[in-house]
Every structure is written in C-alpha cells, then in structure tokens.
Amino acid sequence: MSVPTELGYTAKHEWIAVRDGIATVGITAFAAESLGDIVFVETPAVGDEVTAGETAGEVESTKSVSDIYSPVTGEVVEVNEALEDAPETINSEPFEGGWLFRVRFSEQPANLLSAEEYTKLTEGEN
C-alpha cells in the first residue's frame, strides 16, 4: 500500500496536502481498500465551514457507509465534482484524482501523522 511521504494523515484515515493556505483532503488508500468499491460520495458544499475532527461528509461503498472527517477548520473553497459521476476514482486514485475537497484553513492543521506514523497505525489494523 502506498503512503506518500509529502502528505499528512489522520488516525481516521484522511490525508491532507497543504499549499498556500489551502488544504486538499482525501481518504487514504488503506481506507479506500478497506471500504471496497465506492459507489457514492457526499462532500461539503463550496462555502461551507468545516471543523477539524468533525464530520464533513460521507463515503458509501458496497460494504458500508463511512463518515469523512475534516482534518482542518476553515471554509470549503472547492469540491471534486468529478466524483459525482465517478466515485470509484477514490479506489483507483485515492491520492490523485480521488481527492474530496479543498479548505482555506483558519489555523495550521495540528496533530497530523507522518507517513511513517500512519503506516505503523495501519499495520495494527490489518
């Protein structure tokens, strides 16, 4: 399983990439694989406020429905509209085309795991 080293991770299996005050959020390959075939994604809307650690949407798969948690607090500035017609992109490209939403954050993301820490966390969940 690939865990890109340039990203930050949460214990709830979201990843975050920060650039110029904007955080791009997605779910990890581990989460996508655990969920199985993703068939529907609900993201927050542009303009919505999200809070770090709080539910910001959900992912539905053939196995279950799982909440998406925002790793940052701020305003949603973009959502990945391509997922509306192709939610399975999260399974095939969790770190590229399968990103979920972008947030202009109000404070620097905290308590993120490094790729190494996240890998250790998921080794215990296999």
What is the structure about, briefly put?
The protein is an alpha+beta fold. It has four helices and nine strands.
Which bin fits the share of residues in helices? 10-25%
Q: Helix and strand succession?
A: EEEHEEEEEHHEH
Q: Biggest β-sheet, characterized?
A: 6 strands, antiparallel
In the CATH hierarchy, what is the superfamily? RNA polymerase II/Efflux pump adaptor protein, barrel-sandwich hybrid domain
The average pLDDT is: 94
Distance between the termini: 12 Å
CATH class: Mainly Beta
* The number of domains: 1
For the secondary structure, the number of strands is 9
Assembly classification: single chain
SS summary, helix count: 4
Structural class, from helix and strand content?
alpha+beta
Query: Which term fits the overall shape?
Result: globular
What's the gyration radius in Å? 13 Å
Under CATH, the topology can be stated as OB fold (Dihydrolipoamide Acetyltransferase, E2P)
Low-confidence stretches: none
CATH architecture: Beta Barrel
Subunit structure: The glycine cleavage system is composed of four proteins: P, T, L and H.
Pfam family, one: GCV_H
InterPro entries: 2-oxoA_DH_lipoyl-BS (IPR003016), Biotin_lipoyl (IPR000089), GCV_H (IPR002930), GCV_H/Fam206 (IPR033753), GCV_H_sub (IPR017453), Single_hybrid_motif (IPR011053)
Cofactor: (R)-lipoate
Defining key terms:
126 residues, alpha+beta, OB fold (Dihydrolipoamide Acetyltransferase, E2P), six-stranded antiparallel β-sheet, three-stranded antiparallel β-sheet, 4 helices, GCV_H/Fam206, Glycine cleavage system H protein
